[in-house]
Give the backbone structure.
Amino acid sequence: MSKTNNFVFIGLKFISWIIFVGLCIEAGGLLVNFFFSLFKPEFIPNLYQKLDLSEIYVLSKWTFFGIYGFVLLIAILKAYLFYLVIVLVTKIDLLKPFNHFVSKQILQISYNTFAIGILSYIARQTAKYLQHHGYQIDMLNKFWADSQAFIIMAAIIYIIAIIFSKGVELQTENDLTV
């Protein structure tokens, strides 16, 4: 493996960690925001995301919990996605990348990415429905604006996972014949 590839791979690990920590902070901030909106709503303007859904809570508690559930689940799944990426880039052997662990990890990343995309799409459609019924939810669009991108990315990652699984088969056959 060349020094350039090694340097790029180390940079990729570093960037993955930074994104993972940022997404964990965002998910944690949203979780804290959720609990404060239930018990001490007057503190919400002082919090990280300042996500104030108290009007929705007054109108319908079920809608409040459903919308906040979407926001929290998407944030947690995004953080988990980058956890999977960190595990992959930490444990991959670049001299022999075609192994069962890498194949399974890439497949799991594609499933998680697809789940984020589908959940974001459902949340966006639910938000549109609620908006037609008078709920003010414009501040939530940033949490699921990229649903199509995640679905397309999941498809691409799934194709890569299938290629890796075929590579594992070929490498296993090659190891057995040598």
Q: What stands out?
A: The first helix runs from residue 3 to 39. The mean pLDDT is 88. The helical segments are 3-39, 54-59, 61-91, 100-132, 147-177.
